[in-house]
Design a protein that fits this description.
602 residues, alpha/beta, Aconitase, domain 3, Aconitase, domain 4, seven-stranded mixed β-sheet, five-stranded parallel β-sheet, 25 strands, 28% helix
Amino acid sequence: MGQTLIEKILANHSDQDVVRPGEIVDIEIDVRAARDFGGANVVKNLINNGLDVADPAKTFFTFDCNPTGSDQNYAANQQYCRLFAREKGIKVFDIDAGIGTHLVIEEGIAVPGSTVISTDSHANILGAIGAFGQGMGDQDIAAAWASGKSWFKVPKSVKINLNGKRPENIKAKDIVLNLLNKFGASQLLGYAVELYGEEVEKLSLDERITISSMATEMGAIIVLFPPSDEVIAYAEEKSGRKVEKLAADADAAYDQTFDIDLSSFVPMMSRPGHPDDTIEIDSVKKTKIDSAFIGSCTNGRYSDMVAAANVLKGRKVAPGVVLKIVPATDAVWQRLLDEGYIKIFKDAGALVSNAGCAGCAAGQVGMNGPGEVTISSGNRNFAGKQGAGKVFLGSPAAIAASAVAGYITTADEIPEAPAVFSATGTFETAAKVAKKTAVEHPAVVEGKVWIIEEDNIDTDMIFHNRYLTITDINEMGQYAFDNLAGWEDFAKKAEPGDIIITGNNFGAGSSRQQAVDCFKSLGVQAIIAQSFGAIYERNAINAAFPILTYDDISALELQQRDEVKIDFLAGTMTNIKTGKMVEIGKFSKVQMEIYQRDGLLG
């Protein structure tokens, strides 16, 4: 009995001539990658266990989750990995390179028949070239970096024959969505799937990548394409070496075989929440959208971008709709630039970002907000994956057409005039908001002091910019001073009624209101400083948060957590324990008026 494609690849990388489903084998890993997501943990696993890198030439970092370096946590991990890479001689595909699984194909690092692992659940995209690719956790990757090998359980194989003629309007994304419609998220769970058929043989590399990239969404270990002559030629050109054309044996044993009529496939989309919740696109046409995204490891290739550009050329994105485009790799980006496609995107009104994963990675281009309806070419649309909105999945051409129309449609049904947004009434609140109950603020307060003897405490020290998306004042207090050295635990120690005493230029820096509101959230009653940053002073006064200045309060002989009494109108501060009093700045008439009406907008 012969071997399937997956069995041959695994056997070729093990110490066995033949492997069978269910066997656990140690396999040599040709390409061992870690992303910016997970990469730092891989390094820490190596260091904490006293392990070294077995073969730096086969080991790579790919910074594709956050290629903009716009998130400080990602930036820290990226730099940590860079430092390790420099010391160990590991190649880094940095934030200008693109998606790691695409790069190993594009650079000829992985070829048909090779084995690849990465901290990427879509590493099985390597099935597009007839290679074994697998996403693994940090410990798995660290072990492979140290030993060059990884254990793997040989999966059962399924053979799918796509018979009949491929309809002209069926894109590669439609093919995989039709397969998802048939098999769902679990019928192929744990299987290695091989695809065959006359039309399958004609699929381009880009199309194969689209289909293989959604093996994970079908629950499959991998979707493998026997490499075509075109793919072999591509791999040989990129790698600079001879590549064997691997194929399953004629007498290979498959657990199941499915014959499917490709000619019956229809254009499809996935409804929000589940990639396998697929439906004919006609059923969701004219659904109004807020935004559109073209990119991801599924549809970020050159041909995907050209398909979108052909729709967008000479057209404009519908008013109010945001179209975001992210090529898969920098080589794709550069080709699009050289051939004029970037101009088409920009002329249409699209945002084009640098190469990377984008919408699948939190904090990157492609996120959406509550109530936002997005149409995306990605592979996942789980609730919360790309934000708080709803995400439909479709092909690049359908995404581009929908962005122009303002609602879900196809390239052959773009209206002459786009759909426009209508008022929802959500923000017609002036008449609905009950008049605030008058708040009586005391002119004299008492509280325990926190003495922070520092000058130039800026707003990033007070409320770091990584928290700027927080809009609920009740959530802000926990982050007060968490970036001020020595005071990171302030929020845990603070008590309602506390008073802060500090030095010069408190609140220097940005205009963020949260740097005031975080103290209100904690119940801090006032801040007394020698001086305040100009914007901070305005923000505090307008928020009815008491701030006062002083020249010299040394006579009070205050100790940490002493109690003081402050009279805002008289401009005095008293040490309650000793009775000693000093003069400080007092409220101006304007400050008192704003304070008593509970804020500038009160």
